[in-house]
TrEMBL record:
Residues 21-158, 185-321 form the N-acetyltransferase domain. This is GNAT family N-acetyltransferase. Keywords: Acyltransferase, Transferase. Transmembrane segments: none annotated. SUPFAM superfamilies: Acyl-CoA N-acyltransferases (Nat). Coiled coil: none annotated. Gene3D superfamilies: 3.40.630.30.
Length: 321
C-alpha cells in the first residue's frame, strides 16, 4: 500500500514497509517497559489482508541497509473521513537525527493527499521512565484531546462474586446467534458511552455484518473471549466484558466492559471481569487495560481488583494546515 517518498542525501530513505514489528518492538521497549506490543500475527493479518473499513499505509525509514524507523497511517473509510490515525517509531540509537520528523512529514503529506484534515495518535508515557513521545508529538503540532491510564494486573486478581439475580455466560470467538441482537445493542451503547474527552469522533455503529467481519478478522490473531451477565428472571443481557488473548501469548488485554444503565449498581462490571480472568488458561498471567481517570466507576473497579497504573496514554491530534 505504501509509496516511495523523496529522500535527500542527508535524510533517511523512506520505503513502503512490508514488516516492522522488530523495529517497533525495539523502539517501544526502549522507554516503555509495560508497553503492550502488537504481536507479529496481528501485524501480518492487518498488513496482508486489509479489511474493508480502513486503509493502512506503512513506511520504513532506512539509513543505508539499516532499518531505523517505521510509521503507519490508518485511514478510516466508513466514518471519520476527515481523520487519519498515525504511529511513528524510531530505534533508540538513531533518535534525534530527524528520522521521526521525516516519517511524520510522509504521513502528513499522504493524509492531506487523501483529503484528511487532522491526524490523531496515541502517545503512551511510562510513569517512571522518561520517553520522547510526548515532546515529539508536541513538536509536530499535536495537542492533547483525551487521556487514559494504562493499568496492568498480575493474575489471579481478587475474585468478585456475581449478584445472585444474574448468571454469567461466556463465549469465545463468534457471538452465538441467540445473543447477537442483545450483544449488538450493548456494543453500540458502549461506543456511544465510552468517554473520549475532547476527541471529536463520529461514532462507529456496528450492524450484524460489521460485527461478523470483525469477529472473523480478530479470530485470525486472537482468542477473543466474552463474558455476559444475564438476568435470571427474564434472560435479559445486562452487560458484557470483552477480552483478547493474542495467540500463544502469556498476557491478555481487556477491551470493553459495559453494564447497561438499568443494570448498574450491582458490581456486575467487576463480576464479569473476574469471571473472564478466572477462565483464562494458566499460561496467561498478566492483563492490560485502559481507563480514563474521569471514568471513576471503572477506574475504582480496576484498582480494587488489583490493577495498577503503569502509563499515561495521551490521545493527541494534529490539525493539518
Ligand atoms: C518519538 C520518536 C518517534 C521521535 O523520533 P526521532 O527520530 O528521535 O525524532 P526527531 O529527531 O525527528 O525529532 C523531531 C523533534 O521532536 C522533538 N523531540 C524528539 N525527541 C525528543 C526528546 N527526547 N526530548 C525533547 N524533544 C524531543 C524535538 O522537537 C525534535 O526536533 P529537534 O531535534 O530539532 O529539537 C522516537 O523517540 C520514538 O520512536 N519513541 C517511541 C515511540 C513513540 O513514542 N512514538 C510517538 C507516538 S506515535
Amino acid at each position: 500500500m505504501g509509496r516511495w517518498t523523496s529522500a535527500s542525501s542527508t535524510s533517511p530513505t523512506l520505503l513502503p514497509a512490508a514488516a516492522g514489528t522488530t523495529c517497533r518492538t525495539g523502539s517501544a521497549r526502549a522507554d516503555r517497559p509495560h508497553a503492550l506490543l502488537e504481536a507479529f500475527d496481528a501485524f501480518e493479518v492487518s498488513a496482508t489482508q486489509p479489511g474493508p473499513y480502513a486503509d493502512r499505509v506503512r513506511w520504513e525509514a532506512h539509513d543505508g541497509d539499516r532499518l531505523v524507523g517505521v510509521a503507519e497511517l490508518e485511514l478510516p473509510l466508513t466514518e471519520n473521513p476527515d481523520l487519519g490515525w498515525a504511529e511513528v517509531h524510531v530505534v533508540p540509537e538513531d533518535r534525534r537525527r530527524g528520522v521521526g520528523r521525516a516519517l511524520w512529514d510522509a504521513i502528513a503529506e499522504r493524509a492531506r493527499a487523501d483529503g484528511r484534515a487532522r491526524v490523531g495518535g496515541e502517545v503512551s508515557v511510562d510513569l517512571e521512565v522518561a520517553g520522547a513521545g510526548f515532546a515529539f508529538a508536541a513538536a509536530m503540532g499535536a495537542v492533547e484531546k483525551h487521556r487514559e491510564d494504562h493499568l496492568v494486573a498480575e493474575l489471579p486478581v481478587s475474585p468478585c462474586a456475581t449478584d445472585p439475580a444474574y448468571d454469567v455466560l461466556t463465549w469465545r470467538g463468534r457471538c452465538p446467534d441467540e445473543h447477537r441482537p442483545a450483544y449488538l445493542t450493548m456494543r453500540n451503547q458502549m461506543n456511544a458511552d465510552v468517554p473520549v474527552g475532547e476527541l471529536d469522533l463520529e461514532i462507529t455503529v456496528l450492524d450484524d455484518a460489521r460485527l461478523a467481519a470483525s469477529e472473523e478478522r480478530l479470530a485470525r490473531s486472537y482468542d477473543v473471549r466474552v463474558a455476559a451477565a444475564r438476568r435470571r428472571s427474564d434472560g435479559v443481557l445486562g452487560g458484557y466484558s470483552l477480552l483478547f488473548v493474542p495467540h500463544g501469548a502469556d498476557h491478555a488485554w481487556q477491551d470493553d466492559t459495559l453494564v447497561m444503565p438499568e443494570h448498574r449498581g450491582r458490581r456486575l462490571g467487576a463480576a464479569l471481569k473476574s469471571a473472564a480472568y478466572a477462565a483464562l488458561p494458566p499460561n496467561v498471567t498478566l492483563v492490560h487495560t485502559w481507563t480514563a481517570p474521569s471514568n471513576t466507576a471503572m477506574h475504582r473497579t480496576n484498582t480494587a481488583m488489583g490493577f495498577r497504573v503503569v502509563e499515561h496514554m495521551h490521545e493527541v491530534e494534529v490539525r493539518l494546515a
